[in-house]
Amino acid sequence: MVEVERPHFGSGAEATPPVDRGLARAMAVVRRLTRGLLPRRGPGWERQAERRGCTPVWTDYVGGYALTPEGEVVFSEDYVVDPVQRVTDPRLRVITLYEASKRYPELAHLKPERAAGDRTCPGCQGTGQVPGIAPEMQAKIVCWCGGLGWVPAGTPDPGQ
Ligand SMILES: [Zn+2]
After folding, report:
1. How far is the CA of 16 from the centre of ligand 1 (A)?
2. Is residue 64 a contact partner of residue 49, using CB atoms and an 8 Å limit?
């Protein structure tokens, strides 16, 4: 059964298109099932992020991470049609700052420094490299910590 939220015809302030919740749930399932199977997004997303005033940094199989002019870490699945959301996950924020510091020389000062409460990455035991993979794959497969070897305080364990 498909549930459709009825549009409002009241004040007009909440005039948003109807949301097909069944379709949204189906799309979420498809995204989960295809995560890791679809090709990485092409460079087109970077131009789209720039059009929205953001500096593109890195992408995963779901969407792109970028910085706002104020230095805020943001994410969007699609910088043309989807909202740009502030990233609150401390691990993803640190990874984005780390990637930005490597990608843009003028942003080298954003490289995160490990603080006292941060902990060693449980995935790589602090090496920054995924254990047990061939050397030629080391540059292509990035650890859960983004290669830093540590995760910021408050980061839940993988899978939680
Ligand atoms: Zn790691």
Report:
1. 42
2. yes
What does R_g of the chain's alpha carbons equal in angstroms? 19
Per-residue pLDDT of 66-122, as tens digits, reads 999 999 999 999 998 899 999 999 999 999 999 999 999 999 999 999 999 999 999
Pairing label, strands 119-120, 73-76: unpaired
CA of 120 to the centre of ligand 1 (A): 8
Per-residue pLDDT tens digits for 114-136: 999 999 999 999 999 999 999 88
- Prediction pTM value: 0.71
Q: In angstroms, what is the span from residue 89 Cα to ligand 1's centroid?
A: 16
55-59 vs 150-151, strand pairing mode? unpaired
Kindly give the distance from the C-alpha atom of residue 156 to the centroid of ligand 1, in angstroms, as a whole number: 14
CA of 122 to the centre of ligand 1 (A): 7
In three-state secondary structure terms, 55 is strand
DSSP reduced 3-state for 64: strand
120: which 2 tokens? Answer: 């060693």
